[in-house]
Amino acid sequence: MVIGDSFTAGSGPVEPWETYAAETARELGWQLVTAGAPGTGYVNPGRVGRTFLGSFALELSWRPAPDLLIVSGGHNDRGVSPGRVGQAAGILLEAVRARWPGTRIAVVGPIWMTPAPPWAHEVRNAVAAVAAGERAPFLDPIDRRWGGDALLPDGVHPTREGHIRLARWLVAALREHGIGRDVR
């Protein structure tokens, strides 16, 4: 399962089954269930009116426990103090642990297809600290360069090729932490 924002759910011409989350699931032979929506974050409810915690509660928490939950985001939490983002991330991970104590959690930091602004690094650091406190692998894509053809004309979201590159990176990062086909 993956909780995320427009990068996870799909944006523009990229359909949900074409996202990095779907590509990662295909590569690793996983059944994918995603939650979240464009514009959402740990604190930002986006146009759908719910944060990642709300997406977890409404879309995932009633399901049987997965082997792995990936929480991916922070990109939309601009204008919010990093401390507040970290606090919201901590509440989310605590809720996941309370509902599914045996589920492994991995946290992906904010994804930027272009150089990230300074505030994004601060959000990344806050979320990384929470992940470390929860003993969850933190996978950091913020300073990676994806290539010009990986970016949609909106200057924010990945193209189909960008999602493929994100998935390749994520598969490798998960494997570095011992997470692959057999999650447990």
UniProtKB/TrEMBL annotation:
Pfam family, any one: Lipase_GDSL_2
Annotated SGNH hydrolase-type esterase domain residues: 2-163
Return the InterPro entries for the record: SGNH_hydro, SGNH_hydro_sf
> Which positions make up the signal peptide?
none
Q: Which residues form a coiled coil?
A: none
Q: What is this protein called?
A: Lysophospholipase L1-like esterase
Q: Which organism is it from?
A: Streptosporangium sandarakinum
